[in-house]
Backbone:
């Protein structure tokens, strides 16, 4: 079974930065498109960013565009989310996800494997 483990969450002040990382087990990382989702309290899980297998294509939710950057290192089986200029509304549990097909639909069901999540809290 493919396992995803996120790290890097924490408490930061508005305007600060965090870098989330996700390590994917196994030898099949290059076969997966990857995504970062987030879920605020009382709300559904929504895509923040996605990246294709080879990293040539990326997608960002409008609210994070220009502030967040998704990247992957296929040699290290990792995908990262650099988050700059953080806002209180970015507060959420962030999930790393892997899927067989790159999608910009933002539909969680496009992804087959999920990490357990890491909490990001942005104070004002």
Residues:
């Amino acid at each position: 079974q493919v396992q995803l483990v996120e790290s890097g969450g924490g408490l930061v002040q508005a305007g600060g930065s965090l870098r989330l990382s996700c390590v994917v087990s196994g030898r099949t990382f290059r076969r997966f498109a990857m995504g970062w989702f987030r879920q605020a309290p009382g709300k559904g899980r929504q895509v923040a960013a996605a990246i294709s297998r080879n990293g040539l294509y990326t997608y960002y939710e409008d609210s994070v565009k220009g502030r967040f950057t998704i990247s992957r290192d296929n040699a290290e089986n990792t995908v990262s989310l650099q988050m700059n200029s953080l806002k209180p509304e970015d507060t959420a549990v962030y999930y790393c996800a892997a899927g067989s097909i790159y999608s910009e639909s933002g539909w969680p069901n496009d992804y087959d494997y999920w990490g357990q999540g890491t909490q990001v809290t942005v104070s004002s």
Observations:
- The mean pLDDT is 95.
- The CA atoms of residues 91 and 112 lie 24 Å apart.
- The chain is about 0% helix and 50% strand.
